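Obj: model holo form, ligand = pyridoxal-5'-phosphate.
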Amino acid sequence: MTAKCKGSPLDRLIRPLVRNLRGYVPGEQPDVPGLIKLNTNENPAPPSPKVIRAIRAATDDRLRLYPDPVAQPLREALAKFHDCRPENIIVGNGSDELLALATRAFVEPRQTGTPTRRQAAKQTIQYFTPSYSLYPILADIHGARRNEIRLPADFGLPDNDSLRKSNWDFNAALNYITTPNAPSGRGYTTRELAKLCTAQNGVTILDEAYVDFADEHALRLAKRFPHVIVSRTFSKAYSLCFQRIGYFIGHPVLIGALDRIRDSYNVNGLGQAAALATLVDTRYYQKQFRHILHLRRETAAALEALGFDVLPSQANFIFAQPTSLTAEEWFHQLRQRNIVTRWFDAPNVRNRLRITIGTETEMGKFLDATRSILER
Ligand SMILES: Cc1ncc(COP(=O)(O)O)c(C=O)c1O
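Output (holo structure tokens):
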């Protein structure tokens, strides 16, 4: 995102909250020929040929018209896919848009003065660290309080008893739970998520961006608990990052609140066409998922054989810790060899790299590069 303009006379025209904001830093998108891009968890395979055809077919005179403002056919198809009603679904310009809308719909911005406990909870967005690095930015943009609770060393989900002993607030207005977790890749069972959801009083969003690569999904919790929303995206598993389509599944009252505050035409028409075509070709994607899981296993085993500590992953990436060099050095050395991964300079994760599972050839080159780095 854009940098803040320090010391400009125009600063006085900008709200203090915005003037002092630190924007989200997305993974690099370098345009370098031959670069192996394993940094933003994109699917290495293209969308299904049927999806490409559907996008081409929609690239006609319709481009001058506004798209369907409520993405009705897509919401109907998603409702059928997930065995719920279109009223349970809102589609967004990527799930990022919906995560941001949730802050505006469910959280009070903080006020001046000392709040009561109840008021503070109403102003609180809560999440674990590490998890999706966008959450703190969304809280800051909204002027909300952030409550960050550190995950244990194995990145497992703390149970309610340990949360009670921590600063976790079961009354926080909005909770983001990344499941499977990113960047650790750690999966959480529906059983343990259910226990957490039962204890929460505020809106709880289960961010399932990577769930297609996991053993379980927790959709039934969004059907069972009115305050629970499941967030999904076509970006990762369905190779549609470029089209920006994500969606929430939840109770019609919460979905309706989000619907009232979204932009009128928030979902682009080609994206709607692409997502619709994706849903009728899910077999193509199932095959992709199996291949990615196979490469995930092989890459993890190869790294382990080289002495790396690799966390078990339920996502389309692995989180690996080198022993004979730092993760930062490994990152830079790979970068010099035209391989880009993701290194987070944060307390409990800076000793690991997050590596997206790419194609078989890319993973071979990544492993060769890692071996040559270790030999030097
Ligand atoms: C955990 C998590 N949630 C949501 C998103 C956003 O996905 P989308 O492309 O649908 O905005 C990402 C993207 O990196 C993610 O890692």
